[in-house]
Each structure stands twice: as structure tokens, then as C-alpha cells.
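Project outcomes to date are best conveyed with an example. Our students and postdoctoral researchers have been running inverse folding experiments weekly, and each run begins with a structure described purely in C-alpha cells. The record below, which covers 400 residues, was selected by the lab manager from last quarter's runs and is presented without edits.
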């Protein structure tokens, strides 16, 4: 059967959404989203966005099946009162503070009486005053980040809680190994954030590639709160620019730089410098959010799930009561004490394929609901997700 047709069959089939849902391994379901309703915009990372119809179907399902949404303070309460937890408890969370969280997601959440928590990076908050409105459903004005006025409005609605996503959401070089040469690639958009932090809130809507010098070397990098930062020697950077001016192939420039890097070693931040930077990320974000919104900030979401023993320890010292835990964390650094807890989340997303680096969407408005049911233990929906993934893989193979 043609894969596109099969997706349509799945979308219109009479699947019983009231089928028995077995208990999830984690009784309390903490669900992660990012963007909603910006999937058809020009944003180069629109694959992070859930289709509006998919999200509404999911919210409607929760409402009609008597799920109760809560803020994370109730999640924390349940950690010590597990007998009061219900499989119908859900905790909806949104990372990054995108404008569409207000213009699209909030109105759907409000329609179905669902609460959610937004994790915010203060450096990405739009500094402009005022509360924006959505022009129409096909408009691209959903792009951008929330302003302080909008965050205050959301918090005062009683439907949205605001918590910390750290200060910067940056990436940094973390070794002396050259892996690429900057040529305006989208995956290095974070370099413009470092060069012009005052323009972070606008990176979705303006071309910021020229904030960074073309031709500079890209070293191995990682998330801000999980790495010791490396600073390259300026002489090596100058050499990279000189080699690029000679129109040498990219691979040859990288090869030569890695061969010569020992003559221009650069340096790593010290232990105290790293701790000071982490402290800024963790405490300053907490302080700013508390001062701006006049509320307690008790929960931390690690950007990209990146942390280490030092940043984890400092997050406790900063006064957070709980933080998210990465699904990649094999050690499961979970605090067994009473004062600091770790939040396990699972992400729900639209159907996306990225053959050859280009986003391709197979649309089905029920897909995130299927994911939810599958992760709640439904064998039927686990099978559906598996079938869809096989179809996606076959489509990818044909495209590539």
C-alpha cells in the first residue's frame, strides 16, 4: 500500500481512544513540548513545532478522558505522597519560551482547561513592551519569543506557570579539535547568540549569519551547562581566515588547522571560571524571573538535557527544588534525599523526516495522541507508532 495513503487510513480509522490504558512506568506523566503552530513558517527549525491541529486533538483527548493537568509544585508534592498519585495526572511543559506558546498553545490549553509550565531563558525574552495578537492562522507572526508583559499575562491567567530554563541556552567550544569552518550554517546559529546576545530574541525572524565572521574554525562544542569552555588561539583563527581566502577546500582547511593546532593551543576556562559561569546561568535566571514576575522559581529544565556533577550541585545550592533528568543519563543521577528531586519527562512531537537535512512532514493530527497512549502503555498504539516509523523509514529511503 502507498505510504501516504496508509497514513490517511490511519488518520481516519475508528481507533478506540477509550481503550484500556495500562499504567505508565512513571505514574506521573510529565510531557515535553517546544513550539506549537509554527510548523509551516520560514523558521529553519520548524521541525520543533507541533501542528496546531495535532496539539488540539491531543488536548481535547485529555479533557474528554478526565485527565487532570497540574503545575510542577503538585508533582513535587506527589514525590512524598505517591499514594495520592493517579494515572490521570499529567504535567504539560514547554521549553524555550516561543511566542507561539502564547499565540497558539495557550488558547488551546485554556479552551480545554489545561494547565502548563513554560521554561524560560531570560536572555531570550523579547525586551519590547506589550502583548501581541495573532493576525490569522496562516500568519507567520507566531515566530519570536515571549515578552515580559506576555509572561506576566500568562502567569496571572492561572493556567500557566513560569520556571527556569537557565540563563543563556548557549553552546560553547569544548575542545581544540576543529570540526568545521563557519559559512553561515544554521546549526551554528548559537554563535550569533554569543556575538550579539542583545539580538537573541529575534533570531527566528532576522538573518543573523553576518554577526559571525565567515571562515572562522568551528571546534567541538557542547551545551553551556555540561562543558568546560575552550577558547581558541586568535592566531589559529587568523590562519583559518587566511586559508579560506585562498579558496582551499573546506576539508583541507580543517586538516591543516588540526595539524597546526598544537602550535596555537588556546586555553580552557579554569575550574573557578566554569563554576562562576554555571552560577550565572543558574542563579541569575532564577533571580531575574522571580523579580520580573514576583513569584518563586523552584524548578529547572536543563537545556538539551545537559549537566554535570558541578552544575547539578550548583543548581541545588541556587535553591531549585527539582530539575529535569536527561533520558541519556545512564547513571541516573537522581537525588534520593528529601530536598532535591529529578523530573523525568517524555517528549511528544509531530511526524517529521529529515532526509538530506531537509525537513519533510507527514501530517497526521492524531500522531501526538498516539505517542501519548503508547508511552502510557497501550500496546495498540505502540504498534501504530512502530508502523508509522517503518513507513517513515521507507519514505526516507526512497527520497535519499
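After processing, the design step wrote out the following sequence:
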Amino acid at each position: 500500500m502507498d505510504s501516504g495513503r496508509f497514513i490517511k487510513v490511519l488518520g481516519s480509522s475508528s481507533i478506540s481512544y477509550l481503550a484500556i490504558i495500562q499504567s505508565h512506568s512513571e505514574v506521573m506523566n510529565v510531557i515535553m513540548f517546544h513550539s506549537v503552530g509554527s510548523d509551516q513558517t520560514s523558521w529553519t527549525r520548524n521541525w520543533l513545532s507541533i501542528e496546531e491541529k495535532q496539539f488540539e486533538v491531543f488536548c481535547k483527548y485529555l479533557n474528554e478522558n478526565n485527565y487532570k493537568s497540574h503545575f510542577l509544585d503538585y508533582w513535587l508534592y506527589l514525590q512524598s505522597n505517591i499514594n495520592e498519585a493517579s494515572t490521570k495526572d499529567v504535567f504539560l511543559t514547554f521549553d524555550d519560551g516561543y511566542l507561539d506558546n502564547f499565540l497558539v498553545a495557550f488558547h488551546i490549553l485554556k479552551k480545554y482547561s489545561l494547565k502548563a509550565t513554560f521554561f524560560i531563558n531570560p536572555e531570550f525574552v523579547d525586551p519590547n513592551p506589550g502583548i501581541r495578537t495573532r493576525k490569522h492562522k496562516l500568519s507567520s507572526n507566531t515566530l519570536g519569543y515571549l515578552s515580559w508583559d506576555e509572561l506576566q499575562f500568562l502567569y496571572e491567567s492561572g493556567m500557566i506557570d513560569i520556571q527556569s530554563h537557565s540563563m543563556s541556552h548557549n553552546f560553547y567550544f569544548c575542545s581544540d579539535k576543529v570540526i568545521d569552518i563557519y559559512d553561515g550554517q544554521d546549526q551554528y546559529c548559537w554563535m550569533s547568540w554569543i556575538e550579539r546576545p542583545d539580538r537573541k530574541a529575534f533570531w527566528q525572524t532576522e538573518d543573523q549569519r553576518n554577526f559571525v565572521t565567515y571562515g572562522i574554525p568551528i571546534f567541538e562544542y557542547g551545551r553551556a551547562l555540561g562543558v568546560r569552555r575552550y577558547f581558541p588561539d586568535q592566531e589559529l583563527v587568523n590562519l583559518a581566515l587566511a586559508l579560506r581566502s585562498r579558496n582551499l577546500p573546506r576539508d583541507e582547511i580543517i586538516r591543516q588547522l588540526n595539524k597546526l593546532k598544537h602550535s596555537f593551543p588556546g586555553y580552557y576556562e579554569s575550574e573557578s571560571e566554569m563554576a562562576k559561569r554555571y552560577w550565572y546561568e543558574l542563579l541569575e535566571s532564577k533571580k531575574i524571573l522571580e523579580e520580573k514576575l514576583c513569584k518563586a522559581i523552584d524548578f529547572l529544565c536543563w537545556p538539551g538535557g545537559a549537566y554535570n556533577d558541578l552544575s547539578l550541585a550548583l543548581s541545588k545550592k541556587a535553591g531549585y527544588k527539582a530539575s529535569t533528568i536527561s533520558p541519556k543519563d545512564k547513571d541516573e543521577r537522581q537525588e534520593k534525599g528529601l530536598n532535591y528531586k529529578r523530573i523525568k519527562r517524555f517528549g511528544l512531537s509531530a511526524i517529521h523526516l529529515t532526509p538530506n537535512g531537509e525537513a519533510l512532514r507527514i501530517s497526521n493530527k492524531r500522531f501526538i495522541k498516539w505517542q501519548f497512549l503508547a508511552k502510557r502503555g497501550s500496546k495498540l498504539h505502540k504498534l501504530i507508532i512502530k508502523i508509522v516509523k517503518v513507513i517513515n523509514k521507507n519514505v526516507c529511503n526512497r527520497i535519499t
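Residues 1-26, 351-363, 395-400 have pLDDT under 50 and may be disordered. The first helix runs from residue 3 to 12. The training component of this project remains on track.
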